[in-house]
């Protein structure tokens, strides 16, 4: 996650890298013809990378006082990503393909970039799992190059556990590294008979010693010792006591001399007398499941035949009702099972049968009509889904987000949409559709008359795809919402969509965020707003609308003036996003003038536009006159003290604004005091974001005083504000009196244990707060214990974020005990707290008793196998949890409950 308040620092450092000014190190990367020399700075390398730190020590300067380092084994493409990470600390993984991310791993590990190495693995597993499976051989080989790619190793082993033939029957098996084989042998769920595993281990060991005769009867004692030495790390993980009967003699006996004498004696003892005790360790049997599931059988005494008619059933109405419920339960389980297995057409038929039953529920209707296949539908399942869309009579909403369907997948879906008559919502976010997929979907929009919502964000549709979709909008009469953000369009495509808006009469929402629309495209869209009478929401954020200003601001102001003029004429648009467009102070003033005349806009997003105090004051003046705007986002605009004071003054007069975002505006304590004073008078504002404004204890004390009297504000964000002990105590005191606030964010404020205690005391008295974010607040075990005590008494809080707080074993234990008593909390985040296996077990015990928690985040907590097992057992007893995050814990949990989503 990019931390926005470091963005300028990061950009400056990357600019330093790109201009090469004052560089004193040359890094020669790659080999001819793919070769490049990077000009870098030793001070950055020394600070950020242990590998280059050592290389610099070993390298002697040339006559120009420049050091040269060579890395011929790293590709130029990969090194460009790494060096930008070293300088700027940011990698945009969403713009890097899976193959390149995989190639990043080895050099990241070599360079000692631990954070990057782990992030790359997690990114691959979470967002490119399908690609990893399709390129499994390469993935597996790289993951076991050394022991530092644990996440990727677990991913590969999980696949092999289910399909061991992938590796054991491959041509590469004999070249498998020892640590890779050992990792497989350790798996409790390796889906193979133990005798077959033994055969494969022996086969691998012999291949490592080509001088050994294939026939062990011809071996000398020295030959057996050779094999024993080769397999010394493999043999301890064989489940010998799961090999029985003749297999012991046929499989083990020919090689028994490689086993320890006592182990072989115990194997024979168990074979002759199964109940006799032995001294050798008996490893648990592996969990083996067939690759083809056996059909489920339902007793006729419980369920009548599925197609039986009511007239043929027992006349007793109660018995008939019970039987119908049993049928429904069976059909539901079958439908969800088929859905999980990717048998979508069969699942559809079962859902249709469920809806044909008079006893079906609203939940059944939702399951049949709304399908979430985000990251769950690869190309191998797509044909099934196409059949569903062509036949479908129930499906109305389909989420196919992050499935990497590609252009061919896009074309197949487009063909189906030409035939489908029921789907109303389709989400294809981040599917790499490309221009060809975009053109195919554009063609389908000319034919389809039912789809009303389409999300094509992050699909690299390009200019051709953009123009095709714009042309389609001129004919389509059904679509009301279209998201095309981040698709690499351009100014010409902006003009094409402007033309579409002049002709289309149904679209109400258009998202063109981050598409390089630029000045001319922006002006065309602004002019289109003067003619269009249906669009209510337009997102043009991050489109370089104000990026060209040459010598004067004429160009920049021209596009802003076009939008200002449009706002004066348009009486339909209610939401406009012009964020991150560098509109400047003058642009802010032009929009402010328009707001004085506009009577329909209710939401305006101007985040990160360099408005300055001048733009802030102009907009503040507009708020004194405008009576329709309800939401205004002015974050990251450097409004300063003067801009803050002007807005505070406006809040004393404005009676319609309900949401105001002023994050990262350098308001300071004085600006906050002015806003606090306004909160005592304002009776409309319900949401206020003042994060990252360095308010300090004085500003917070003033705000706390205002909160004691304000009765309308329900949401307050004070993240990263250096509250100080005095400010935190004042805020806690205000919570004891305030009866309106429901959401409070105090994250990243270093509250410490004492701050935790003060807030805990307040929670014992407050009965309105429902959401509290205290992440990264250095609460420690004492703060955690105080909050745990509060949870035993508080009955209103439903959301609590305590991630990154070093809670300690005592704090975690106290929170687990509190969960046994609390019956209101539904969301709890304990990520990054080093809870360990004992913490996992404590929380597992709590889940067995808690009846309210629906979401639990335990990300990166070192839970271990014991903690994982305890949680798995708890899920069998818990009936309320619907989401569990156990990623980065080195464990996997299986649950038979279809309603719980486990991120792992």
UniProtKB/TrEMBL annotation:
Start and end residues of each BTB domain: 23-95
PROSITE patterns named among the record's database cross-references: BTB
Coiled-coil ranges from the UniProt annotation: none
InterPro entries named in the record: BACK, BTB/POZ_dom, Leu-rich_rpt, LRR-containing, LRR_dom_sf, SKP1/BTB/POZ_sf
A Pfam family reported for this protein in Swiss-Prot or TrEMBL: BTB
Gene3D superfamilies, A to Z: 1.25.40.420, Potassium Channel Kv1.1, Chain A, Ribonuclease Inhibitor
Protein name: BTB domain-containing protein
């Amino acid at each position: 996650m990019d931390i926005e308040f470091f963005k300028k620092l990061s950009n400056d450092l990357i600019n330093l890298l790109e201009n090469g000014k004052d560089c004193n190190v040359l890094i020669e990367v790659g080999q001819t013809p793919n070769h490049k020399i990077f000009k870098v700075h030793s001070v950055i390398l020394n600070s950020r990378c242990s590998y280059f730190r050592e290389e610099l020590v070993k390298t002697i300067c040339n006559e120009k006082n420049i050091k040269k380092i060579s890395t011929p084994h790293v590709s130029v493409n990969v090194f460009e990503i790494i060096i930008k990470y070293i300088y700027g600390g940011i990698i945009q993984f969403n713009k890097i393909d899976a193959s390149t991310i995989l190639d990043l791993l080895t050099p990241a590990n070599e360079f000692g970039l631990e954070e990057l190495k782990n992030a790359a693995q997690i990114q691959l597993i979470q967002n490119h799992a399908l690609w990893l499976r399709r390129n499994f051989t390469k993935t597996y080989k790289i993951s076991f190059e050394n022991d530092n790619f644990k996440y990727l190793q677990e991913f590969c082993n999980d696949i092999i556990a289910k399909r061991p033939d992938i590796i054991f029957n491959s041509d590469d098996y004999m070249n498998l590294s020892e640590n890779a084989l050992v990792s497989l042998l350790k798996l409790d769920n390796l889906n193979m008979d133990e005798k077959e595993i033994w055969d494969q281990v022996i086969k691998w060991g012999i291949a490592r010693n080509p001088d050994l005769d294939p026939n062990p009867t011809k071996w000398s004692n020295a030959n057996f010792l050779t094999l024993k030495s080769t397999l010394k790390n493999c043999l301890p993980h064989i489940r010998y006591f799961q090999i029985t009967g003749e297999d012991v003699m046929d499989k083990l006996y020919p090689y028994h001399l490689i086993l320890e004498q006592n182990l072989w004696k115990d194997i024979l003892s168990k074979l002759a007398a199964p109940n006799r005790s032995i001294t050798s360790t008996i490893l648990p049997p592996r969990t083996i499941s067939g690759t083809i599931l056996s059909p489920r059988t339902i007793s006729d005494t419980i369920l009548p035949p599925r197609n039986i008619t009511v007239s043929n059933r027992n006349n007793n109405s109660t018995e008939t009702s019970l039987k119908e419920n049993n049928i429904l339960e069976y059909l539901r389980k079958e439908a969800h099972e088929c859905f999980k297995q990717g048998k979508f057409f069969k699942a559809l038929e079962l859902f249709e049968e469920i809806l044909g039953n008079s006893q079906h529920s609203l939940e059944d209707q939702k399951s049949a009509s709304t399908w979430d296949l985000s990251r769950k539908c690869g190309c191998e399942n797509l044909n099934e889904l196409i059949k569903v869309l062509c036949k479908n009579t129930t499906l109305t909403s389909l989420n196919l987000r992050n499935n990497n369907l590609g252009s061919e997948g896009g074309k197949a879906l487009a063909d189906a949409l030409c035939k489908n008559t029921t789907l109303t919502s389709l989400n294809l976010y981040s599917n790499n559709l490309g221009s060809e997929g975009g053109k195919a979907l554009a063609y389908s929009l000319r034919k389809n008359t039912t789809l009303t919502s389409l999300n094509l964000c992050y699909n690299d549709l390009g200019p051709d795809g953009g123009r095709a979709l714009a042309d389609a909008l001129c004919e389509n009469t059904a679509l009301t919402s279209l998201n095309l953000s981040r698709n690499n369009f351009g100014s010409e495509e902006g003009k094409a969509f402007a033309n579409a808006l002049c002709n289309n009469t149904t679209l109400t929402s258009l998202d063109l965020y981050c598409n390089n629309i630029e000045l001319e495209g922006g002006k065309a869209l602004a002019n289109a707003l003067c003619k269009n009478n249906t669009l209510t929401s337009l997102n043009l954020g991050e489109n370089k609308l104000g990026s060209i200003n040459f010598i004067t601001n004429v160009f920049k102001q021209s596009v802003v003036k076009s939008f200002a003029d449009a706002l004066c004429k348009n009486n339909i648009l209610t939401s406009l996003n012009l964020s991150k467009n560098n509109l400047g102070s003058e642009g802010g003033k032009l929009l402010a003038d328009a707001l004085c005349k506009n009577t329909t806009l209710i939401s305006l997003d101007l985040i990160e536009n360099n408005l300055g105090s001048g733009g802030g004051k102009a907009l503040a003046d507009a708020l004194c006159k405008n009576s329709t705007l309800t939401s205004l986002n002015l974050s990251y605009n450097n409004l300063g003290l003067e801009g803050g004071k002007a807005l505070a003054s406006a809040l004393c007069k404005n009676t319609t604004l309900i949401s105001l975002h002023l994050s990262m505006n350098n308001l300071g304590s004085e600006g906050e005091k002015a806003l606090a004073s306004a909160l005592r008078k304002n009776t409309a504002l319900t949401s206020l974001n003042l994060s990252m404004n360095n308010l300090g204890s004085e500003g917070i004390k003033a705000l706390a005083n205002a909160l004691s009297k304000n009765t309308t504000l329900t949401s307050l964000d004070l993240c990263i504000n250096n509250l100080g002990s005095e400010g935190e105590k004042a805020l806690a005191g205000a919570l004891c009196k305030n009866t309106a606030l429901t959401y409070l964010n105090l994250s990243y404020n270093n509250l410490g244990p004492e701050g935790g205690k003060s807030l805990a005391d307040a929670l014992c008295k407050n009965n309105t707060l429902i959401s509290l974010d205290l992440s990264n607040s250095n609460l420690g075990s004492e703060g955690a214990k105080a909050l745990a005590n509060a949870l035993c008494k508080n009955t209103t809080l439903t959301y609590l974020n305590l991630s990154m707080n070093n809670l300690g074993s005592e704090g975690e234990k106290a929170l687990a005990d509190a969960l046994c008593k609390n019956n209101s909390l539904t969301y709890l985040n304990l990520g990054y707290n080093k809870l360990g296996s004992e913490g996992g077990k404590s929380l597992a015990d709590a889940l067995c008793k808690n009846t309210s928690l629906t979401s639990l985040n335990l990300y990166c907590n070192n839970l271990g196998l014991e903690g994982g097992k305890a949680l798995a057992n708890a899920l069998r007893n818990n009936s309320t949890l619907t989401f569990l995050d156990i990623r980065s814990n080195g464990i996997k949990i299986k649950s038979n409950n279809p309603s719980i989503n486990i991120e792992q």
